[in-house]
Amino acid sequence: MSIFEQLTNRDQVFDFLTPVASPVDVRHGPILYMEGVSVSFDGFKAINNLNLTIDDGELRCIIGPNGAGKTTMMDIITGKTRPDTGSVWFGSRHNLLRMNEPDIATLGIGRKFQKPTVFEALTVFENLELAMAADKRILPTLTAIMTAEYRDRIDEILEMIGLQALRDKPAGILSHGQKQWLEIGMLLMQKPRLLLVDEPVAGMTEQEMERTAELLTSLAGKQSVVVVEHDMGFVRSIARKVTVLHQGSVLAEGTMDQVSNDPDVIKVYLGEEA
Amino acid sequence: MATSQTWLLRPFQERSTQVFLGVLFAALVVVTFLHLYMPEDSALHVSAYTVTLLGKYLCYALLAVAVDLVWGYLGILSLGHGAFFALGGYAMGMYLMRQIGDRGVYGDPVLPDFMVFLNWQELPWYWQGFDMAWFAFIMVLLAPGLLALVFGFLAFRSRVTGVYLSIITQALTFALMLAFFRNEMGFGGNNGLTDFKDILGFNLRSDATRLGLFLATGIALAVGYVVCRAIVTSKLGRVSVACRDAEARTRFLGYRVERVQLFVFVVSAMLAGVAGALYVPQVGIINPSEFSPLFSIEIVVWVALGGRATLYGAVIGALLVNYAKTVFTGIMPDAWLFALGALFVLVTVFLPKGIAGLLQKRRQKDDDQPGAQEATA
């Protein structure tokens, strides 16, 4: 077959024309890889030689006393804070230290803030619409059209987070727990590969907590989830693997039972709580 | 919710836009009719002076819409929008100056009077091309647009927001005012540009031209309003509100906040430029006082009075305040600033959402009965 025939063969789709579903390379296992990361603010070492690996599809809980560097760690992963030393890789292809926040978000890292942050002036539906994975440049956003397909996707997530009844209400009237869910829903609309969830059950009732635990465990496998949480009961109910942070570095890692029996951990943190 | 339409047509499906355009066009038609067909001695006759005054108000209304777009929807309180207005005005003024030709006091076929007076031998390079209307009209958009682009790029990239941004916008317009006061700048110094003769071949002193300018301003306001409305009802408009309320969250969703801000800011600056360009031929002069920080603050007061983040509120605010200004400065000129201050305080205390907020509350009350069923369904 001549080259001309090859090129004009209409059945063939060239590689470069097919969209890459996920450019994140996880063939080697880990989806997030942090090595030797340190950052200090005015001499205070918030993160000190931190090493952390999250596998693709894993659900990981990170615990630690206040000031252990949990939130700073998330800031580094999402591009908000630049570390002084160390490397952070997403899959084995993307160096997160070279990217800015929107790029990292587009690549597939979603983040839920400690304090629920939703757009209060917009409706629940609109909140999810903005979060939806789409072309987020200016002109495509200006000319974006709400199609039936998008609407279905939003409704699907609405059902998952149980806010169908409040679909067209402004997000500002939601209760604290509902805002937490809406924010998780917004993360899911982004179709992320890795979810960073900062204190998802703060201010929730028992039932709400249970539902959140169900939601998060159902996500693991499809997505990788990293949960930072203070509530030990909640951590115990969802965690398969727990990492304990202390003074900016990893103190212990393992199952909840292993960790809670670790003498170092008991000394610094779990002492009276566990 | 009208969502399955091209973004530019979407506003026409909204009730508020339909009402706004209806009222605006009705007003244009009525004023035109009363001006042309009522005998001059009739009480209903609208004089050419009034037509021009109304045209001036409409320019202010367009300017207020531009400010509301960035302040109401993007949360950027610009205290320097007068600069964009004045730049648009100067671009138009330069065209009108070149149209004078050899009819000036000194009779120089090319140089405007003030240049002859300053003993300049030839036209500065930045005055080239302004004898052509199309070029001048493009510059009306481009000059404010470019300034906004450069200024916005630097400010938003460095993530300057809130009060700090307001202060540097104020500094921007103040700096420009000082620059334009200098004779060496070549924009007529503190006298500015004036003594215009005609526009596109029509005599600026004739009543017909004045009516034409008034109608053109009305149409510009309608177009500007629809463009702004199209932006705020698009997904980009919702992203703007998102940037306003929770910037960090918007960034983590993958939007480039600084680009959204830059885009909307530039559009707003261009609209302000158009307003300035239509203002100059109607008042017959443009001088550096349009750059004064006080004027930019006054625009913000109009918008606050009318109600933020509605666009029509900005129009109502601009018209009411300027009408009040005309009346007050006629009766007791010294009291005007006190009256404006009092008005601002009263509205902030009793009507935090402005006049538009009052209208919305009224409408919600009317909707309550049918609305209640919808909520339970």
From TrEMBL, chain A:
<dbReference type="InterPro" id="IPR003593">
    <property type="entry name" value="AAA+_ATPase"/>
</dbReference>
<keyword id="KW-0813">Transport</keyword>
<feature type="domain" description="ABC transporter">
    <location>
        <begin position="32"/>
        <end position="272"/>
    </location>
</feature>
<dbReference type="InterPro" id="IPR003439">
    <property type="entry name" value="ABC_transporter-like_ATP-bd"/>
</dbReference>
<dbReference type="InterPro" id="IPR017781">
    <property type="entry name" value="ABC_transptr_urea_ATP-bd_UrtD"/>
</dbReference>
<dbReference type="Pfam" id="PF12399">
    <property type="entry name" value="BCA_ABC_TP_C"/>
</dbReference>
<keyword id="KW-0067">ATP-binding</keyword>
<dbReference type="GO" id="GO:0005886">
    <property type="term" value="C:plasma membrane"/>
</dbReference>
<dbReference type="GO" id="GO:0016887">
    <property type="term" value="F:ATP hydrolysis activity"/>
</dbReference>
<keyword id="KW-0547">Nucleotide-binding</keyword>
<dbReference type="Pfam" id="PF00005">
    <property type="entry name" value="ABC_tran"/>
</dbReference>
<dbReference type="InterPro" id="IPR027417">
    <property type="entry name" value="P-loop_NTPase"/>
</dbReference>
<dbReference type="GO" id="GO:0005524">
    <property type="term" value="F:ATP binding"/>
</dbReference>
<dbReference type="InterPro" id="IPR032823">
    <property type="entry name" value="BCA_ABC_TP_C"/>
</dbReference>
<dbReference type="InterPro" id="IPR051120">
    <property type="entry name" value="ABC_AA/LPS_Transport"/>
</dbReference>
<protein>
    <submittedName>
        <fullName>ABC transporter ATP-binding protein</fullName>
    </submittedName>
</protein>
TrEMBL record, chain B:
<feature type="transmembrane region" description="Helical">
    <location>
        <begin position="299"/>
        <end position="323"/>
    </location>
</feature>
<feature type="transmembrane region" description="Helical">
    <location>
        <begin position="260"/>
        <end position="279"/>
    </location>
</feature>
<dbReference type="Pfam" id="PF02653">
    <property type="entry name" value="BPD_transp_2"/>
</dbReference>
<keyword id="KW-0472">Membrane</keyword>
<feature type="transmembrane region" description="Helical">
    <location>
        <begin position="163"/>
        <end position="181"/>
    </location>
</feature>
<keyword id="KW-1003">Cell membrane</keyword>
<feature type="transmembrane region" description="Helical">
    <location>
        <begin position="335"/>
        <end position="355"/>
    </location>
</feature>
<keyword id="KW-0812">Transmembrane</keyword>
<protein>
    <submittedName>
        <fullName>Urea ABC transporter permease subunit UrtC</fullName>
    </submittedName>
</protein>
<dbReference type="InterPro" id="IPR017778">
    <property type="entry name" value="ABC_transptr_urea_perm_UrtC"/>
</dbReference>
<feature type="transmembrane region" description="Helical">
    <location>
        <begin position="70"/>
        <end position="92"/>
    </location>
</feature>
<dbReference type="InterPro" id="IPR043428">
    <property type="entry name" value="LivM-like"/>
</dbReference>
<dbReference type="InterPro" id="IPR001851">
    <property type="entry name" value="ABC_transp_permease"/>
</dbReference>
<dbReference type="GO" id="GO:0005886">
    <property type="term" value="C:plasma membrane"/>
</dbReference>
<feature type="transmembrane region" description="Helical">
    <location>
        <begin position="19"/>
        <end position="38"/>
    </location>
</feature>
<keyword id="KW-1133">Transmembrane helix</keyword>
<feature type="transmembrane region" description="Helical">
    <location>
        <begin position="132"/>
        <end position="156"/>
    </location>
</feature>
<dbReference type="GO" id="GO:0015658">
    <property type="term" value="F:branched-chain amino acid transmembrane transporter activity"/>
</dbReference>
<feature type="transmembrane region" description="Helical">
    <location>
        <begin position="44"/>
        <end position="63"/>
    </location>
</feature>
<feature type="transmembrane region" description="Helical">
    <location>
        <begin position="211"/>
        <end position="232"/>
    </location>
</feature>
